[in-house]
Amino acid sequence: MTPSSTYALSDQVIGRVIQRVQPLHFQHACTNECPRQIQLCNNADWHPTSTDCGSSRVEGDSSLNVPGYTSVFDNGQVTLVPTRRTTWMSTTKRERSRINQARYRDRQRQHHETVAKSIHELRQEIQALETKRRNIKRCSPTYTSSWTAVSDFFRVFRHGFKASLLSIEDNETGSGEQFDFLRNTMTIDGINDAEALANWKLMSAYHGDVLLELKSLEQVAENCLLATATITIAIAEKTLQHVYPHLITDGKLSSIAEKLLNNRLHICGSMRFDWNSTSCRIVSLESSFDIMSAMLKVQGNLKDVAQINYWRRLSFYFDNVQMKTKRRE
């Protein structure tokens, strides 16, 4: 037995029933201008009506009415063609999207320009403060003791002169720790760039791995300190080319030059510093180093050392190197 509240529905009743409420995901699909095709089920009671354009428009079937679209039957399929309002809404949405993207790019570009401007201003401010700091430092004595100044000299020039100092003749306003030390500690009005330090600059330029070490420091007179030091230098290819090219013939090294190449010289010597207690600066520096003994250890005999004549060249670098202050007229 069947309850009185139960109804039996055949396939003919529910076969052509479709969803009348537009689903949520269909709202996004309607933005596409391409027609959406829907395959109709085989139903004998449904007949299309021909239109003037050669297609068939569905009549008498309100179940295919989709908001914003017109149903057109063609070759057994129903094509949903967007109406003019739907196309206009889609075009308006794309236009708004382009406007928003343009505004976003403008904001990004303005932000980039603002950051770049701030960085440039900060760099200028840092440079101005650095210049101000150096001017203040030059006006005040850096060291109050000759012992401290001499000890700091060996720290600053432990590895010779840096690359920025090698072009001292062309850069009178050089910067860096070594320039600041020379200006503030060893001179009154600056360094005589053409004469002072010329030999030491050549030594740093033509040799690799320069190492200046302080061994002892003693006071030999009032305001005069004598330092015992050792300089270690490496003989590189540029040393052979610039210091004694006479040992190279047609690009080939002589046996003496081969002994020197990639070797290290440990040169012992002394440096004398004269101190001015009034200005709190080093007013004179004289140095003398024993180059010949270092060369003799490498070559093993005086004959080769005499042929090299190298100790004379290095003596030119180290002996009687003087740095004196320039005074105002």
Automatic annotation (TrEMBL):
Which top-rank group of organisms is this from? Eukaryota
Q: Which UniProt keywords apply?
A: Coiled coil
Q: Where do the record's region annotations for Disordered lie?
A: 89-111
Basic and acidic residues: bias regions: 92-111
- Coiled-coil regions, chain positions: 112-139
Q: Quote the protein name from its UniProt record.
A: BZIP domain-containing protein
